[in-house]
Fold:
Amino acid sequence: MPQDEKLILVGGGIGVTSLISLASSFDEKNITFIYTVKQGKDILYTDVLENLQKKHNIKIYAKIGRYSNEQLEDILPIDENCSYIIAGPTAMNSAYKKYLTQKGIKSNKIFFESFAF
Structure:
């Protein structure tokens, strides 16, 4: 992955664990980290996410419930100079892949780590 390439991490539920480790390993790469959980569940690792947010290169967006397409327009970079890593339930992964490909992102820029529940 080229140094100037941006890293977009999208986590759902327990999928956040692998993405936290990945985000922690980069000190200079520009990272956008989006994390959601289903209604009624707590967001995991809030203290870890708060510490990551203090790094100058990471923007974190976390919430209960899914982001609407309108909300994603504001927080999810759409750029051919980005790699997208999605870790979460299969349905969530598919929804983000569809969204990204509809926005023109090529499938070779989208990577998955699925968690079946």
In short: The CA atoms of residues 5 and 18 lie 20 Å apart. The two ends are 31 Å apart (CA to CA). The chain has one domain: 6-114.
